[in-house]
Amino acid sequence: MSVPTTPSRRSVLLGGAAALGLTALGSTQASASADKLTDPFTLGVASGDPYHDSVVLWTRLAQNPLADNGLGGMPDRAYFVEWEIATDEGFRRTVRRGVELARPQSAHSVHVEVEGLRPGSEYFYRFRTQGHISEAGRTRTAPAPGITRTDLTMCFASCSHFGAGHFTAYKRLAEDEPGLILHLGDYQYEYAAGANDVRQVLGPETRTLENYRLRHAQYKTDPDLQLAHATAPWLVVWDDHETENNWADEVPEQPDPNFLERRKNAFQAYYENMPLRRTARPRGIDMQLYRRLQWGGLINFHMLDTRQYRDDQACGDGVKPNCDARLEPTRSITGEEQERWLLDGLRRSRARWDVLGQQVFFSQIDLTPGVNQGYNMDAWDGYKANRDRIAEGLGKTRNGVVLTGDVHRHWAAETKSDYTDPTSRGLATEFVTTSITSGGDGNDDPNAGVLAENPHVKFHKNRRGYIRTKFTADELRADYRILPYVRQPGAEATTAASFVVADRDRSLHPA
To answer: Where would one find the signal peptide in this protein (predicted)?
Structure first.
């Protein structure tokens, strides 16, 4: 194989194994099977949950990723998978290496928790089995605890429906070369193929473990998604569509006596396909997904789970006027234990920025223009007391920020202590990212009626894309990135608006 001797960063991330050669992984060809595989790295590589001295590396073997049984065309046996992590793109300075066993019981997924790494450092990693080498991924560790004089470019995204369009936004996100990527839910959708789909979704509506494994595999075959995973470590949390639309704890959207089995299957497949630590391994119908990650002393990321513990949506779900049930003080979207954990973390925090990575609209938003008020019962407005307690907790931190997905629109909002008074005390700022594809191309409707009802909401855009942020000790900048279309591939990204939040200022300022 002819390879360049000094591959560039772009050649590593875009060119994969062809840019690397096979020398650095050593000569071991260990396998628990005598079966010779074709290329098993068709689903790419990923990393996630970076600590200051550790990171998770992920891959999943699948020589036929779209096999109906969801097992990627792999024989029913285990395979040894070698991994290595280096400080250079050419893998001449390897700092850690090892071997993991990819088992059929876990759909031949591999989760490696690499320890002993240097804080605030960039690394490159790859995998090998039976002479096949994966593409290379780039990752990084968080800065050392307490370090605030640093910066972080972080992009976040949500809502990527395979059938609704092309994943070009993931490619544009990767081209921004962020140091960290947050995915805030609806990474994949459970629905069967639709009549208006741009790309064919394989399989029926996902219910069985085989269904969910196949659906994740189809998404992972997308080259733009693979590129985004290979560019930076990810912090992931789910929303509803990774399991089923608008589910709430043990309550499905529609009556289903088999829902808990469906939930168990969805959780298992989600873990198998995400760069998560062992602490997130599912136990039946339960999965520990909410967690806290410190980016030095600059940011505390509090990653929330607003599905697994919530009360059923009030008043039959949807946008409802005059729903008094949403005001009940015991109603919760987080559950009591997660709320205590979050408020305790906010109270103890000494970080410059405390960031909630979560799923549904946090600030109050009246979605019914005119005299009547209508709130979304699936969002925090349906759990007002729970929201207000957490908002007060954010208001006591140095800088409280909420990052949100779900609604397939770009929004920017100020979380207020009293939404009837635009001059009331600000508690946090909220940045809501639009979808990667869900909702199709979108349009330029300014949504003037809703904006007029909600003076604390400062921006809206109905296009697809993501949000790019830059955190420093002095300010947070958020760029609302949009694409003109997703029903065809190749769209360029532009910035529709930018906002700056200064240190100790809980208001949005156009940049």
So the answer is: 1-32
Higher pLDDT, 400 or 13: 400
Q: What is the pLDDT of residues 137-155, one digit of tens each?
A: 999 999 999 999 999 999 9
The residue count of the chain comes to 511
Co-location of 132 and 165 in the same domain: no
Whether the per-residue pLDDT at 423 is higher than 50: the answer is: yes
Residue 245 and residue 392 in one domain: yes
Determine if residue 440 is left, alpha or beta; phi over 0 gives left, psi from -120 to 50 gives alpha, anything else beta. Answer: left
Give the H/E segment covering residue 226.
Answer: helix 223-231
34 is in which domain, residue-wise? 9-140
Q: Does residue 24 belong to any structural domain of this protein?
A: yes
Q: How far apart are CA 126 and CA 400, in angstroms?
A: 37
Whether this prediction's pTM lies above 0.85 is answered by yes
Rounded CA separation 81/99 (Å): 5
Q: Which residue has the higher pLDDT, 14 or 390?
A: 390
Last residue of a domain, one of 81, 115, 140: 140
The residue assigned the tokens 């979304």 is 376
Neighbours of 503 (CB within 10 A): 13
Q: Is the dihedral of CA 37, 39, 44, 47 positive or negative?
A: positive
Evaluate whether residue 492 is within a structural domain: yes
Q: Which CATH number goes with the domain that contains 228?
A: 3.60.21.70
Spatial contact of 268 and 209, defined as CB atoms under 8 Å apart:
yes
Residues 121 and 173 in one domain: no
243 and 344 share a domain?
yes
Strands (E), 180-283: 180-183, 234-236
